What we know:
Layout: H1 4-27, E1 31-33, E2 39-41, H2 42-58, E3 63-66, E4 73-74, E5 81-89, H3 91-95, E6 102-109, E7 112-120, E8 125-130, E9 134-137, E10 140-141
Parallel strand pairs: 3-5
Antiparallel strand pairs: 1-2, 3-4, 5-6, 6-7, 7-8, 8-9, 9-10
Helix pairs in contact: 1-2
Amino acid sequence: MPDPIYLATAVEIVLRAGDIQRHGQESGFRVDKKGRIDLVTEIDLACERMCRETLAERFPDHDILAEELGGSTPGRGASRFRWVFDPLDGTTNYAHGLPIYCSSLALEIDGRAEVAAIYDPTRKELFTGERGEGSYVNGRALKVSQTETLIDSLLV
């Protein structure tokens, strides 16, 4: 079982990212293109910087893989620990005012995801998971569907 500080850190970071996202929706933000159809906002960048700074301060030899500011730092690929962060999953929705977006952060240890946190600030839903301990939304255990066929499933 991973050190509890890892999940606590993941939760703290995605909640802080949610605060940045909410503030951006209230105060406005710049949108740029990073490809023909891919958007990036200053909110994506602010969330990623906050995440990188927090993780580098607490876990200086852990690697970080994030979407906007480039590849792995500070361990430069040599660490057993790698944080994987999407600062604003749903950037296009966010940029157009559609309230379907979140931040997600996971920690891999030796290539296996061990802890994760996802926060949807518009619905105030915090999803957490830890290997061997289950997954939760706002502290309530999630259950796997008993549906056996795709045709009978609800896909969102």
